[in-house]
Amino acid sequence: MYAQMVKSTGQGVKSLDEMEPQERAFQERINAGEKIEPKDWMPAGYRKNLIRQIGQHAHSEIVGQLPEGNWITRAPTLERKAILLAKVQDEAGHGLYLYCAAETLGVSRDELTEDLLSGKMKYSSIFNYPTLTWADMGAVGWLVDGAAIMNQVPLQRTSYGPYARAMVRICKEESFHQRQGYDIMMKMAQGTPAQKRMAQDALNRFWYPSLMMFGPSDADSVHSAQSMAWKIKMNTNDELRQKFVDQTVPQAEYLGLTVPDETLEWNDDKGGYDFAEPDWSEFFDVIKGNGPCNVERLAARNKAWDDGKWVREGLLAHAEKRASKKVAAE
Amino acid sequence: MSAPNSAYPDIPEAQPEKPKRHEWPLWEIFIRGQHGMSHRHVGSLHAPDAEMAIKNARDVYTRRNEGVSIWAVEARHIAASSPGDKGPFYEPSESKVYRHPTFFDIPDEVGAM
Question: How far apart, in whole angstroms, are the C-alpha atoms of residue A45 and residue B7?
């Protein structure tokens, strides 16, 4: 998931009877499956929770360009390079759809950007891991985008109209991403012994960080309960993680690669795999800013923002000059 | 909006009336698909002027041949009905069922109409 540990009011979910009439009418619309649109009345908590979640999601798409951008100049063929470029460009597009959705809630684009750059707002922990080999491009598309899709598909039904519509566009494009990743993995896994080792190494390094993307178990979290009541979260983290493992293990088997989990075993009773939890202390450490690439990622975003300042200002000055000339001519 | 909520220290208060920073303006983007349809709203983006808005719209919203024509309208120029009007504003048409063809019973013998 691209938004992790999104906290809501922390007050637990009110029953309909405990709500004031306005809030009750709002909750009843959500319960009936209606979409909430930007100008509709909404509780302050719903608005802020959504800004936090959509903003974090948008930031993840933008920062998520960096690990893959790392390999554009070193892609093994021109075709692979063109495909990777298209994929990274899509991520920028996804970030833009989401920023626009967040802006309908009354926050400005620059405020969101500044909160990312200062570290006040978060992005997904997964993008703080390095991409060391070309096989990592395969693993990122297959596992990271695969995990993101698990979360994004149900979010197409989320209660906030602009968010749901952004998710529809994103999901359409996201399956290209996962397939291109798996395509790279197939090529590597069927290649020379050295290539196969690289593919296995990429899986080894990205498996647990991918499981972390869903966030720690939230079965007992009041934040998640509230988000689910508002339908801005559709499944628990554990449900999505289980679904991801069940879908991914056979795909790894097809590649002839081994999931780095000795405890992994099919459980007939639950109709899914039993698997090992990732190291949650590592997760919290990465979230706190101590992952292998946190500093590098934020530095790259800050540099891009600072270096682009004269372009943003120059284009605006040019637009204003032309507009005033037009007025003068009329 | 209600008073600042301590559960959300990282999220700025939504205050539509506060002075806007010097940002590129927001444009709403409408795209005509390839099938002779009307232009449809697809989303929004920021751009310094109309020309850049259309170029950016091409990159953001038509990466997979989704359109043959783009309209960009600066968001502040769009007038919108208010959601609070929903009931009373549209109510007059509710009582006029005769505006629908199915209101009229035409005998089968008359044929297709």
Answer: 8
**Which residue from B43, B33, B30, B38 is spatially nearest to B71, judged by alpha carbons?**
B30
Residues A117-172: tens digit of each pLDDT: 999 999 999 999 999 999 999 999 999 999 999 999 999 999 999 999 999 999 99
> What count of other Cβ atoms lies within 10 Å of the Cβ of residue B90?
10
- Determine, for residues A49 and B80 on separate chains, whether the beta-carbon distance falls below 8 Å: no
Using DSSP's 3-state secondary structure scheme, residue A6 falls into coil
Query: Where do we find the tokens 């989401």?
Result: A98
> Would the CB atoms of B16 and A106 count as touching at under 8 Å?
yes
DSSP classification of residue A37:
-
Binary contact (A319, B49; C-beta < 8 A): yes
Contact between chains at B8 and A49 (C-beta distance less than 8 A): yes
| Run of H or E residues at B39 | strand B39-46
Distance from CA of A276 to the nearest CA of B (A): 33
Domains and CATH numbers, chain B: 22-79 (3.10.20.520)
Q: Which of A39, A48, A165 sits opposite B8 (nearest CB)?
A: A48
DSSP alpha helices (H): ranges in chain A?
Answer: 21-31, 44-63, 65-69, 78-103, 109-117, 135-139, 145-155, 161-189, 193-212, 222-229, 237-255, 280-285, 294-307, 309-329
Over the stretch A21-34, which tens digit does the pLDDT of each residue have?
Answer: 999 999 999 999 99
Under-70 pLDDT residues of chain B: 1-6, 12-21, 84-86
Contact (CB<8Å) A103/B11: no
pTM: 0.91
The verdict on ipTM greater than 0.85 is: yes
Q: Note whether B7 and B28 are within 8 A (CB).
A: no
| A321 touches B at CB < 8 Å | no
Give B46's contacts (C-beta < 8 A, 6+ positions apart).
A109, B23, B24, B25, B26, B27, B56
Q: Which of B1, B2, B6, B8 is the best mutation test for A, with the most CBs of A within 10 A?
A: B8
Q: Please report the domains of chain A, with CATH numbers, ordered by start residue.
A: 17-328 (1.20.1260.10)
| Strands ordered across the beta sheet of B39-46 | B39-46, B26-32, B69-74
The pLDDT tens digits of the residues spanning A290-320 come to: 999 999 999 999 999 999 999 999 999 999 9
| Contact status of B52 with chain A (Cβ, < 8 Å) | yes
